[in-house]
Amino acid sequence: MDNLSGNSISVGLIGCGIVGTGVAKLLAQSRELVASRVGITINLAKVADINPDTVAALDLAPGVYTNDAMEIINDPSIPIVVELIGGQGIAKDFVLAALNQGKTVVTANKALVAAYRDEISAACEASGGDFLFEASVGGCMPVIKSLRESLVSNRVDSIFGILNGTCNYILTQITQEGIPFKEALAQAQELGFAEADPTLDIEGMDTVHKLALCVALAFGTRVNYKEIYVDGITRITPLDITIAAEFGYRVKLLAITKNHGDCVEARVHPTMIPFDNLLSSVGRNMNAVKIVGDAVGEMVLYGAGAGMMPTASAVVGDIVDAARNIKLGCHPRIPAFSYQPQAIRDLPLMPMDEVSTRYYVRFSALDRPGVLSKIAGVLARYSISIASVHQKGRHTEGPVPIVMLTHEAREADIQKALEEISGLDVIAEKPMLIRIEDQNQE
Amino acid sequence: MDNLSGNSISVGLIGCGIVGTGVAKLLAQSRELVASRVGITINLAKVADINPDTVAALDLAPGVYTNDAMEIINDPSIPIVVELIGGQGIAKDFVLAALNQGKTVVTANKALVAAYRDEISAACEASGGDFLFEASVGGCMPVIKSLRESLVSNRVDSIFGILNGTCNYILTQITQEGIPFKEALAQAQELGFAEADPTLDIEGMDTVHKLALCVALAFGTRVNYKEIYVDGITRITPLDITIAAEFGYRVKLLAITKNHGDCVEARVHPTMIPFDNLLSSVGRNMNAVKIVGDAVGEMVLYGAGAGMMPTASAVVGDIVDAARNIKLGCHPRIPAFSYQPQAIRDLPLMPMDEVSTRYYVRFSALDRPGVLSKIAGVLARYSISIASVHQKGRHTEGPVPIVMLTHEAREADIQKALEEISGLDVIAEKPMLIRIEDQNQE
Questions:
Q1: Least confidently predicted of A390-394, A397-401, B369-373, B436-440
Q2: Among partner residues A152, A310, A317, which is closest to B34 by beta-carbon distance?
Q3: What's the complex ipTM?
Q4: Residue in B145, B210, B258, B290 annotated catalytic
Q5: Beta carbons of B37 and A220 less than 8 Å apart
């Protein structure tokens, strides 16, 4: 393939939104720096976007812009294709078409990789391109590089991730300002930390996509991301966050996966994390991932999980890895999903009902004698033991909050118990449940 | 070179102390896991140590042990040599001999790499071996991989590192238990967190070695590690740590480097870090590194900086990287010191006198009227402005502590001022100075 003229390697960029613009900018501004480190000049040969306005500010040389992505994919002088359209639509066709031509593909598209793991893996295997997607989990941080390379000798035991900057920003604002969810969301939108349609973020699905990639890379298993339990942050109230703090916890949207040998636990939901766990200190729109391995113990990566330049940094890191491999003729160098294709297994996901953890439950109860004993009676019948009880102010006529922290209990049991308690005549509204994670403390 | 039989690659290990033993164990326990990920079996072909007792517990196959390291270096069937003797003595000869034969060398030896950067670089260039030393900075964490690979497009602006587990353990104990340095050191020695001769750790030289590597990798400059300013933790008292906490700071032995374009700031000393900086939460014997880059912003890595298995994890990560490259015939793949040899510069170190920072100064003064004004007068003459003053209890007959936090000031000025203040008749002993770092807050 005529892709190496002197020490320059050509890159084609498909999709020039925020991250795409960042990649074009970063390739330009780091051109000499990268050459001085790598000995290769990265040449942004083509930029494809359906809208020519998106590239107007980029000062591209004549002939670089195209409105036809296939022009990049079919150009034999471009060995590296960067897909930054996002989503599970047309991006899939472009990625697979490029891989099928033996090109190396770099992407930040977690939704795509989570959904089409098998197709991508097969295409890489058939034609020998590298597939790099560092920017799809944890933005700038080397989460994927750590799992595929640094920790290669580790049996991963668990991963805990704050993987969505929008949710972390909103939860931080609720915590620090005591404002309700809707107001925090509006602030986040105003500051550009949340999109106009924030559903994918606040309902947790973006985090699920990222967790699915971590599960695949850590455990070498196919996982259907649609089966991962997910609960977003929309129901979290300042009251819950305040009470959690009184117990020594912060509330974060956490992606959790644990290796049970014959099955994998994977879930995404608001989670109470004790203050002495480093993840509880991750504020604003920052991300962090804790990986627990049998040799390393606990390792944490922290950084910007989104944003134009941090994400571009991860994308360009991948581009340079790809360029080194192409220059030296050594690709595929690392299997896309960390394991050799024939070693990939089909470990079942642990059903959510069987998950065991500790719980925070807030009941809204009428202030009558015997309420506590009624609630406790139901919990006891489902073998849920109470670690502590906290009854907030009794000054009002209406319902009062009663908060309980449980010892470890089965999800099926707590759900059945809460359903039964909800039916009690002293209970005013649906109980609030937040799961607690304090097994892997710092 | 006859080094690839089937999909197995042979490794020779020189030095079988704690980390060497860990590497041998980890290679054995992760053999199938690594093969399933990488498609290569790593074969520990030879282990050299002058003392046969060290390998007794390892259950090595017959013929694997040797007391002659050159047997590994001269064996054409062993393409990867792992040096884990440590120190700047014989290890140097083995490393250079192996590199000169075109072998890939993996090491955890920061003292060696800091001292013989040029020789190592030249040997790699001449013969084409990879040189990998992830385990030499930050133990299990991918500090070197991040600087050489992930952040390749970033102009690094600064690095802040807690890089010595012994010091961090001792400082954590002084903080939490209020015990003096000597007692904390004795505890650390008892628990195996400090060596019998802890000089290299507690005087800061181990941290200097690691910082020198970060400087070289981040800025592409030759740096003489002996010129880096260093001050250890032996003078830190529980009183200073308590007062620091009252001001909202924790005391850590911090490695600091900043990019000033035409020169490099690099220093190692006890440093006050505000609570809201993630590094202040790094307790026990853990390590953390914050890298600030123009594209990523702040990125933090946290993990075990030492210990048998975490360090072994980094060494085996390097071995596998090397094995992938050898299998695919692509080495050297990444320049040892991150930059192309011809791009390496000779940036001067900023003289410590010219460094500007904020300071904590504790004076031990006689409790007489006018003391404060005398001290403040001297500081004012050296253009040092005071941010806050804190006078501890006046209940004693003897000298009382007076603590001042300064605004940013030049090191030369504060040193001259302190010398002058030390000469005042109201000052009972040499003032205590701790530098403050709160520019790069979380």
A1: A390-394
A2: A152
A3: 0.96
A4: B210
A5: yes
